[in-house]
């Protein structure tokens, strides 16, 4: 059987890992074993953070909608209830954008919901 030398493949693999860990602190940027371990932990945290980001943005949108609706004298919970009751199907992201960039349009939505 022919002998297979793996030096080129192994070197490429290690270079790829070290390239991904560029900017890490201490030996985690230059030593392969530490770099690999740091990278696997980083990928785990990145995956979890992508899931958390959705909830964070939802909370931000709710806060923005609450601030805009309180200017008109209504709380967020009452506003959300009235929107659902009047069958206005606009999501939080759009409502927050309207409250921030187009307050006149947001006021019209408020009037429609509370009429």
Could you characterize what this model shows?
The structure is a single chain. By secondary structure, the chain is mostly helical. It has a single domain (8-114), classed as c-terminal domain of poly(a) binding protein (Orthogonal Bundle). Helix content is 75%, strand content 0%. The protein has helices spanning 7-20, 32-71, 76-85, 92-101, 103-114. α2 (32-71) packs across α4 (92-101) and α4 (92-101) crosses α5 (103-114). It is rod-shaped and about 85 Å long. The termini are far apart. The model has no long low-confidence stretch (mean pLDDT 95).
Categorize the overall geometry. Answer: rod-shaped
| Main beta sheet strand tally, sense and closure | none
Question: What would you call the structural class?
Answer: mainly alpha
N-to-C order of helices and strands? HHHHH
How many structural domains are formed by the residues?
A: 1
CATH superfamily: Ribosomal protein L20, C-terminal domain
What is the CATH third-level topology name? c-terminal domain of poly(a) binding protein
Query: Proportion of β residues?
Result: under 5%
CATH class: Mainly Alpha
What separation lies between the terminal Cα atoms? 84 Å
Helix content: over 70%
Number of helices: 5
Number of strands: 0
Average of the residue pLDDT scores:
95
Low-confidence stretches: none
Name given to the CATH architecture: Orthogonal Bundle
Rg for CA atoms: 26 Å
